Amino acid sequence: MIFKGKVFIKSWFNGLPDDWRFEPLDIGYFAVLKRLYSWMVETKIRSGINYIDKLDFLEAYPSARIEAFKEDTIKNSFGAAESEWEPKTPSNYKQLLKQASSIKALLRTRSRSPPSPLNSAINQVLKACQVTMQSAAFLEKEVSDLRAANEKQKQKRTRSRKQIPSTEGLSVLEASILIVQPEEAIEPPPPPQLRRPSPPLLPRTRVLNRCGACGNLGHKRNACPDRPR
Fold this sequence. Notes:
The protein is mainly alpha-helical. Helix content is 50%, strand content 0%. Among the domains are: 27-84, no CATH class; 90-153.
């Protein structure tokens, strides 16, 4: 809430509704504060104090503020300015408890008798909302964990498994360059050559004897037909 400013930028207020600002006189409790402070100043004047310095102001203002800024006065003043309280949907259990407490306090101020059945109904609704919010929180946590695990698995699948052969050490820069380079297509190994079938084994031919007398093949010397008898 801005009460007064010497310098402001006009673009600060772009997009705001027409009723975003309240003048001090539009809200009733400022009039109550002004009346109480004036009464305290008049009391000092009757006591012989003809001027008010900073210390007198710091002494009188807190007391006037405590008397003016009471819960009923503030609610009635904003109600007269057509600025009623509009409950918002709570987004967590803490906001839910705060709103339930405000509703119960409002019921107590409007009803003199203790509304026990209504309080029981509010407590049941509060318990149901609590269970629903806790279940939604657990479900959101499980979904977040599953998404994180899925992202890790996706990173593992896309990780390069290229092997870099190197007989000597590589620097970080050299390894980065080798990883970024596209992998060369691996040529398939050549098909194995078919072996020619070996020729069939032929039976071993017997070498014919040569005759020592006549020199012909097929017999020995002792069986030579030309041998003299």
